[in-house]
Amino acid sequence: MKICVLVKEVPDAAVEKRIDPSTGRMDRSGEKNLNPYDTHAIEAAMQLKEGGALQVDEIVAVTMGPESAVRALHKAVSLGADRSIHLTDAALAGSDVAATGYALAKALEKEQPDVVLLGQQSDDGECYTIGAVVAEHLKAPSLTQVIKLDVVDGGLRCERQAEYGYDTVQVSLPAVISVGDAINEPRYPSLKAIMGAKKKPLETASAADAGIDASLVGGDGSRVQCGEFKAPPAKAAGTIIEDEDTDATVEQIVAWLDERKLI
Amino acid sequence: MDFDLSDDHRLLRSTVRDFAEQEIAPVAEELDRTKAFPYELVRRLGELNLMGIPFPEEVGGAGADTLAYAIAVEELARIDSSVAITLCAHTSLGTQPIYLFGSPEQRAEWLPKLTAGELLGAFGLTEPEAGSDAGNVQTRATLDGGEWVVDGAKQFITNAGTEISGCVVITAQTGTDERGRKEISNILVPNGTPGYEQGTPYRKMGWNASDTRPLTFTDCRVPEENLVGPRGDGFKQFLRVLDIGRIGVAAMGVGLAQGALDEALKYAKERKAFGQQISKFQAIQAKLADVATEIAAARLLTYHAAFLKDQRRDFSLVAAQAKLKTGRLAVRATEEAVQIHGGYGYIEEYPVCRFYRDAKILTIGEGTDEVQQMVIARALGA
């Protein structure tokens, strides 16, 4: 079977996020890295391959992004993917989530994967939705926020993190599964794997190569209109209560909540 | 000129940085406090091919270059100098002489395990009476019935006394040449050889989680084939090994200074005094700006030394300059970092306290500043 892992290049976690006032979009300049959530998806794919309960023939990392996004693929293959696909085209720039999901689904159609894995969110846009959009286009079941993945009865049994606890879902393949960071501890790439990464096949595909209808992607093909995004206001300083006498502390907290009619 | 790191070097840097921040930083204080050798971290560094970075894959190394080695050492030292020196001494000093000068048999026996990090290598040069004047070797080795019989003592040796220490390459007087000068040769002594004893670890100012001990050799017999390279080449060999070692130690200085700056900047932005972050005060800003500038210069010098070695060009002068510059910088940067932390910098709650203790050895070990100045002045023709 074949697993495709969707990955994304995002601003490095150490870079402070801000809105670029000239475009109203996130400022993505500066140091970049592979989206940390995606490393969990790659690790999940590697564990399926190494676990041996399923015969995984190939893990393919797929990204859509500008030229620099090749670095995210470079890291993805150093972490174990066998090859990678870089969907890149000026026509794709400015795509919103729906357009990006459509474009990625078109790239995946050619690959016919049995499982598509991705991180549950990107560290920049944090939409949490790309997996569902891709699944819709592929007409495959979509599972999100999966934190446990087992091979059962030829399908995958997944535990989803929900607000009230966990859902256990048996899913048939093909399926699109986004994973949470609690699913595993991603490995670090070894130095030999880093140096060998560029020797693994990298395919560059344009929108036309992937059979993408250009009217459905890019800024013009996107329905999201970027308005005047602003950074959230700075949080007001909180109240710190020194816990010298716990009874008194509890009273102070209750009084504080009461004052605001929160209890 | 191209100042951009290659994609491989960038990814190596971010990988080692992640490893250091996520795996080493949480245990660094405890390792230092309990003076515990980081066996588990060394094992994991071996798995990541970081215990044999600059050696070719044929001998078990990662097949990377000196720049990659410098970057990895820098990122480790940014978080923990004990771990960095363990890797650094193992690579530049322990494994290097066997790789450069060892016989095919010695290389086949030792390099795969050393480069995998399963065993640690050590280099025994310094003696109680021979530090900077390393040619004044008192340890003697005499041939007797096809064996070298070694007698003498070594001082301040890193990595020789751990549970995974494999061997030490030592310098010894093996006779005198026709002009009556000492003939110095390098001899490989495996751990476990009768008569080779590792003394009690020193009580050091810093580098507390690294293994540093005196060694004694008493009627210690090893096979004649344990000679490393030609007899009498010991002096030339150890100068070469030290030249290479300086690049690693220079990278430690850059990394430690960067770690100190990062901690100082973080603290200065958190700490408030007189109603504002102390990072807004000019006096603090001047310190941060000066240290950041010095680090930028020192890093370029260090990478230049690595670049020259990778180009197979003469790098001795630049390596000595990098070592001199970075050792002093580490001392200064860690002192400024402690100063910016105020009283908190003087207690072990913040890493800069450990950084300050770890820094001083960088103006002493692998050639004191004064020796570097001698090397540099000679190269200038003075």
TrEMBL record, chain A:
Function: The electron transfer flavoprotein serves as a specific electron acceptor for other dehydrogenases. It transfers the electrons to the main respiratory chain via ETF-ubiquinone oxidoreductase (ETF dehydrogenase).
InterPro entries named among the record's database cross-references: ETF_a/b_N, ETF_b, ETF_beta_N, Rossmann-like_a/b/a_fold
GO molecular-function terms, A-Z: electron transfer activity
SMART domains: ETF
Protein name: Electron transfer flavoprotein small subunit
Subunit structure: Heterodimer of an alpha and a beta subunit.
Domain Electron transfer flavoprotein alpha/beta-subunit N-terminal positions: 23-214
Signal peptide: none
Automatic annotation (TrEMBL), chain B:
Keyword flag Oxidoreductase: yes
Domain Acyl-CoA dehydrogenase/oxidase N-terminal: from-to ranges: 6-118
Cofactor annotation: FAD
Gene3D superfamilies: Acyl-CoA dehydrogenase/oxidase, N-terminal domain (1.10.540.10), Butyryl-CoA Dehydrogenase, subunit A, domain 2 (2.40.110.10), Butyryl-CoA Dehydrogenase, subunit A, domain 3 (1.20.140.10)
Domain called Acyl-CoA oxidase/dehydrogenase middle: residue spans: 122-220
TM helices/strands, residue ranges: none
Domain Acyl-CoA dehydrogenase/oxidase C-terminal: 232-380
Protein's UniProt keywords contain Flavoprotein: yes
The family this protein is said to belong to: Belongs to the acyl-CoA dehydrogenase family.
Protein name, per record: Alkylation response protein AidB-like acyl-CoA dehydrogenase
UniProt source species: Conexibacter arvalis
